[in-house]
Each structure stands twice: as C-alpha cells, then as structure tokens.
Amino acid sequence: MTYTPDPSRYEKMQYNRCGNSGLMLPAISLGLWHNFGDDTSHQAKVDICTTAFDAGITHFDLANNYGPPAGSAEKAFGQILREEFRGLRDEMVISSKAGYFMWPGPYGEWGSRKYIISSCDQSLRRLGVDYLDIFYSHRFDPNTPIEETMLALDQLVRSGKALYVGISSYNSKRTKEAYDILKSLGTPFIIHQPSYSMLNRWVEEDSLLEALEDRGLGSIVFSPLAQGMLTNKYLRDIPARSRATQGKSLSSSFLSNENLSRIRALNDIAAGRGQSLAQMAIAWVLKKQRVTSALIGASNPQQVLDCVGAIDNLVFSEQELQEIDKYAVDGGVNIWRQSAEL
Ligand SMILES: NC(=O)c1ccc[n+]([C@@H]2O[C@H](COP(=O)([O-])OP(=O)(O)OC[C@H]3O[C@@H](n4cnc5c(N)ncnc54)[C@H](OP(=O)(O)O)[C@@H]3O)[C@@H](O)[C@H]2O)c1
User: Fold this and answer.
1) Residues spanned by the domain of 67
2) How far is the CA of 251 from the centre of ligand 1 (A)?
3) d(CA 313, CA 77)
4) What CATH number should be reported for the domain holding residue 237?
5) Would residue 9 count as lying in a domain?
6) Given 37, 257, 273, 322, which is the most exposed site by the fewest CB atoms within 10 A?
7) Which helix (H) or strand (E) is 168 found in, with range?
C-alpha cells in the first residue's frame, strides 16, 4: 500500500535552530544504529520510519557501519526512500558518518582523507541519494592530522556531496581545534553529536556545551535513553528481545543493582510529572539550550510515539531538577568515553 504522510505532522513536533545556522532540526530525531540491519524485517523498519515521519521527525541519522552487516542500515533506508518516502527527500535531513571500522586494510577506518571521501561515496550509493544533509567525522583520529580530516569534510561540501558537516564524540579541546580549521576554510560546520543522558554526563564535565555555545554550534545528543535503560523496560527484569539480551552494545552488567535503583527513583519522579521515564529522559537533555535535538533509537513504532510525547512537557521546576540530580549520576554506561579522551 502506498504511504501517505500525515498532513498534520508538522504541528506535532517542535523544530529547533541548529546553533547559528539556517537549519532547523526536530527536537527528537531518529537514529538507525540498531534495528535496521539484515536481522530485522524490512516491514518493521518501514513501520518505525513512517511512524516517525508522521510524528514530525524529519531527521534520520545513519553511519556507514550501521547494520549488521555494516552498510545494511543505509541500504534499508535507501529502499524506504525510494518506496515509501518517494518525493519527500527535500522534507528530510539525512546524515551519515565515517570513522569506525568499515572495510579491511589501512583505508577502512579513522580519519584519513582517503577513507572519509571513499566512505561518503559508498554511503551515497547505498542510500541512493545525491548528497547528505550532514556528514560527520564519527570519531577523532589521534594518528591523522586533524587538518586532513577537516579538509576532507570541507571537500565533501565543495564537491556537493554534503550540505553541512559535523563531528561526533570529539572532546571540547578537539572541537575547538576542528572549529578553528573549518572556520578558516569557510566550511558549514554546524553540529556536534555527543552521547548524553541522565546516566552519562561527560559533556558537562568536559564543558562541551559551553564550547559549542561560544562558537554558535548546535548539538544532537545520542543515546538520551542510555540505550533503553532510561525507560520502563528494565524496571523489573530483563525482557527477552531487548537490547540487553542481544550481546551488542548494551552490556547486561550496566544493569547493576545500583543503576537499577537510580532508574527506579527516576521513574518515580517521571510519574510525578505525568510522564514516562523515556519522556522525562528526553525532556531532561532538551532542557539544555545548546541541545538542538535528542537522537533516539527505537525497536518498534510505539516507542517512537512514546518518545515524541516528551514534547508535551519540557519544563522542569528547580525542585524537580535537584531531585533528579540525586539519581542522574554517571552509571559507567558511556562506551564512547575512549573517543572523547583522545
Ligand atoms: N555518533 C555516535 O558515535 C553514535 C553512537 C551511538 C548512537 N548514535 C546515534 O544515536 C541513535 C540512538 O542511539 P540509541 O539507540 O542508543 O538511543 P536510545 O534512545 O538511548 O536507545 C534506544 C533504545 O531504547 C529503547 N527504547 C526507545 N524508546 C523506548 C520507549 N519509549 N520505551 C521503552 N524502550 C524504549 C529501545 O530498546 P530495545 O531495542 O531494547 O527495545 C531502543 O532501541 C543511533 O541510532 C545513532 O543514530 C550515534
């Protein structure tokens, strides 16, 4: 059956300006890291993406290595673009990234010009699009001059393969270096993609958001639900078919008694606000002015709808914030910490 988008979709979402740029992003964006590989049915992917678009989510975030296997999430989204989303390309912001392992040999990961440009070309082919709206350096490469990585991003814009560029998981020191180079080149560098959640507050320790603020950059924060831990999912047990049982990125050791008691306390605070825990977790990251968008993942359409409900209550009292702070402490769940330490 042909998909027809909900005509009221833009009334359901809030759109925030990305830093000082002209680009607006939805307050909630959808990432295709998990649940978009060959291990998931195509119809399940279609249902998640169309539900998201109907809810006003215009931004879909990918990377070369999303799957499994690597590359399959881009292929699947390319098929959705051709079939369900035909004619809607200009209503969407599609991003991809290069940085992590993609193919064997010395040219298949990190930040060389050789890798970044060839990987972007592959992403465009898999997605079947002429350009990406945002292309990211997925992680800082300590062995490649940062000038080379930034020049490669600049080249992608100049050759029409990307409209804007961003960096992901770079710490504030590296972010400032990247900014200076891209500013001197005149590259439209508008966004940073760090991890951030109530259980992972490294961006605060690193003063990253302040560095972005000073430079007029926006941010899209990933894993605001700490991969599902900040939802009602694990309050009682570890359900089958959850990320924690898949042996992928969410180690069941993260669900320690200590973390679970914090999560239950946060769930009580959310209930007091008339929200699900997922909704409060999203509202909590969005309360920072420099956070343009919360980048969620979902394994079904109901999760997308629950998350979008966060928009209905984004305001916190000082008392609620103080109460949240008692439990919103680092839970050892930041698996990207190493990249930010380079
Ligand atoms: N730049 C980077 O290095 C980087 C790294 C990681 C992620 N990202 C981006 O960020 C995106 C989001 O990451 P993430 O998937 O870890 O984000 P997340 O939103 O923290 O976690 C998503 C998971 O939470 C669960 N969930 C979501 N909504 C729920 C709800 N309302 N109720 C109950 N459970 C719910 C689902 O788990 P189940 O699957 O168990 O149902 C879902 O797969 C990725 O797709 C990717 O685009 C970027």
Assistant:
1) 24-341
2) 14
3) 31
4) 3.20.20.100
5) no
6) 257
7) strand 162-168
